[in-house]
Amino acid sequence: METKKLTYRIIEEDCPVPVAKARRCFLQAMEFWSEADPRLVFVEADKARSNLTFIWEPHPRHPEKIARCINSGKNHWFLAFDPRNKWAAGAIKRFFGMGDCLRLIAAHEIGHALGLVHSDSTDSVMHPEPINLNLDQRDRRAYESKHG
Ligand SMILES: [Zn+2]
After folding, report:
1. Topology (CATH) of 4-147
2. Alpha helices (H) in 1-113, listed in sequence order
3. For residue range 112-128, what is the model confidence (pLDDT) as tens digits?
């Protein structure tokens, strides 16, 4: 089985929640994808160059967008999260009224970096406003068509 290594960096500047919690959410979001595709391996980059860079930055034009995935060159994506948004970064699974689940939104943005587009299924992590950390059949087919 051929592994697909993706390196990542987590930038702590402007992180609005305790850094260790944000970090755990990002790691759990990456784990979600390595469970979906066991060939995927996420490795923390020791240099400036990485495939995925998690940053805290508001959207410059659309303040209502709490997170985005920006392709910035070959095999590099910024996963940007709005530091002004209310984020839930605790260990519990559901966060009614406690803010947007950082783990869930991070998993959604990583999905974009992996080439997935939005799904209209509320059962999919790729729904524009995801509520479930889950891939449906259509996501899996879309993923497989891109990654074999
Ligand atoms: Zn999206």
Report:
1. Collagenase (Catalytic Domain) (3.40.390)
2. 19-36, 102-113
3. 999 999 999 999 999 99
Enter the tokens of residue 128: 């524009």
Give phi and psi for 129, each to the nearest 5. -125, 80
How many residues in total does the chain contain? 148
Q: Which two tokens stand for residue 138?
A: 């259509």
Cα(76) to ligand 1 centroid in Å equals: 17
CA of 68 to the centre of ligand 1 (A): 7
Tell me which residue has tokens 């524009």. Answer: 128
The pair of three-digit structure tokens given for residue 59, joined into one six-digit string: 């959207």
pTM for the model: 0.93
Please tell me the predicted confidence (pLDDT) of residue 2: 79
Residue spans per domain, the chain: 4-147
65 Cα to the center of ligand 1, angstroms? 9
Q: Which residue has the tokens 């784990």?
A: 31
Measuring CA to CA, which residue among 22, 30, 83 is closest to residue 56? 83
Cβ 136 vs Cβ 119: under 8 Å = yes
